[in-house]
Design a protein that fits this description.
Blueprint: E1 4-6, H1 15-21, E2 26-28, E3 36-40, E4 46-52, H2 57-68, E5 75-80, E6 83-89, E7 94-95, H3 99-102, H4 105-120, H5 132-143, H6 151-156, H7 162-170, E8 180-182, E9 191-194, E10 197-201, E11 208-210, H8 212-227, H9 233-240, H10 247-259
Antiparallel strand pairs: 1-2, 2-3, 3-4, 4-6, 5-6, 7-9, 8-11, 9-10
Length: 265
């Protein structure tokens, strides 16, 4: 985590958030263009995320829900003013792209798969987001007119033309199922470990009840992206449990991911 000192007056935050922070030292730890993340150095540590209005509502909702399951951080405050402001407790551990984990790719792959199976084994009857497939499908339809898709993801699922890819997916929509509690952005930076043991999930705003293969696809993708090889795909799926994997649904979730890409990073 790269930290750069921040002056509180630069953030233009609401009075209640300001009061929570007090005189604590602040450090910018942002890694996304869509949100600013600030580390609050007091007690065991907190994170303040700032994003356009309405963008952090789902993240606050799902972070708090997963916290009740012992899987994510405690939400200390969420306010939606001119911008969204979310404060969470720091989770003890390091993310999956910490060098000591990357230096042991086989073990990391195994732990990464086991942590995903753990999430997908959690009951979800009380989850506040009950149908992520419908939400993703609505976004895809909204973006359809732009006829754009993530070219890397399309190539990865052996497709090319966005229009033909859309048709392929719509003809098989009934295969997708809301069968697990999913993370929604299951990549190595979004899981925290302590000595290869699970600590928690972060950045869970795309989570909810959805198709387990959506997380499986992104799990395989992030391993390929970080290790520059697809050699760990089979190991990941084996450790997760091949009996729980349908490769056609895996491909469909990859296509859905490509077609819900809006051109942002």
């Amino acid at each position: 985590m790269n930290l750069k000192p921040v002056i509180i007056s630069e953030l233009n935050i609401p009075p209640a958030i300001n009061a929570f922070i007090g005189n604590a030292p602040l450090y910018d730890s942002s890694c996304s263009k869509q949100a600013k993340t600030v580390f609050i150095d007091m007690g065991n540590g907190y994170f303040l995320k700032i994003a356009p209005k309405g963008c952090l509502n789902d993240e606050a909702l799902m972070t708090e829900y997963l916290y009740t399951k012992g899987l994510s951080a405690r939400v200390c405050d969420y306010q939606s003013d001119d911008m969204d402001y979310l404060i969470t407790e720091k989770i003890y551990g390091e993310d999956g792209i910490t060098q000591k984990y990357l230096d042991n790719p086989k073990r990391l792959t195994e732990v990464f798969a086991e942590c995903l199976y753990r999430l997908h084994s959690v009951g979800f009857d009380d989850c506040p987001k009950q149908n992520r497939i419908v939400e993703m499908w609505a976004l895809m339809e909204k973006l359809k007119s732009s006829n754009t898709a993530d070219p890397w993801l399309l190539e990865y699922v052996e497709m090319s033309d966005p229009a033909l890819t859309y048709r392929y997916l719509t003809e098989r929509r009934e295969l997708l199922k809301n069968d697990a509690l999913i993370h929604g952005d299951y990549c190595l930076p979004n899981i925290l470990l302590k000595d290869f043991s699970f600590s928690g999930y972060i950045d869970v705003g795309y989570g909810g009840v959805g198709d387990r293969h959506y997380d499986l696809f992104w799990g395989v993708w992030t391993l390929q992206y970080n290790f520059h090889t697809n050699d760990f795909k089979d190991r990941f799926l084996d450790c997760y449990g091949r009996g729980n994997v349908d490769m056609e649904r895996f491909k469909l979730c990859g296509i859905l991911s490509a077609l819900t890409w809006d051109g942002t990073e």
